């Protein structure tokens, strides 16, 4: 193998190594973002479930007190 061929192969290997390092870095960043979003989704689901339970409690307490469903109540100015 001649020196120019060896130099060309060396340059090509270095370029491929550089591209691989960039791809690995990008992959890690995307993996971190997906993990963060997963944690956020779990927290949002918990919050939604808590709000749904609270809404059910409010509806139950309103029905027990005779107030009825707030959505079906007529405002006082009607």
Sum up the structure in keywords.
rod-shaped, 78 residues, 79% helix, mainly alpha
Structural class estimated from helices and strands: mainly alpha
Order of helices and strands: H
State the end-to-end distance.
95 Å
Our estimate of the beta-strand percent is: under 5%
Low-confidence runs? none
Q: Helix amount, in percent?
A: over 70%
Give the biggest beta sheet: none
Average pLDDT score: 90
> What is the total tally of β strands?
0
Question: What is the count of helical runs?
Answer: 1
Instruction: Give the radius of gyration.
Output: 31 Å
Molecular shape? rod-shaped
Your description of this structure?
Helices cover 79% and strands 0% of the residues. It has one helix at residues 3-64. It has a domain at 22-51. The relative contact order is 0.05. The protein is mostly helical. The termini are far apart. It is rod-shaped.
Tell me the layout of helices and strands.
Elements: H1 3-64
Sum this structure up briefly.
Helices cover 79% and strands 0% of the residues. By secondary structure, it is mostly helical.
């Amino acid at each position: 193998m001649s020196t120019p061929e060896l130099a060309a192969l060396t340059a090509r290997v270095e370029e491929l190594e550089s591209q691989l390092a960039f791809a690995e870095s990008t992959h890690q960043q995307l993996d971190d973002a997906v993990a963060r979003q997963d944690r956020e989704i779990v927290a949002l689901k918990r919050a939604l479930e808590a709000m749904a339970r609270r809404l059910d409690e409010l509806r139950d307490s309103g029905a027990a007190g005779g107030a009825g469903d707030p959505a079906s109540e007529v405002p006082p100015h009607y």
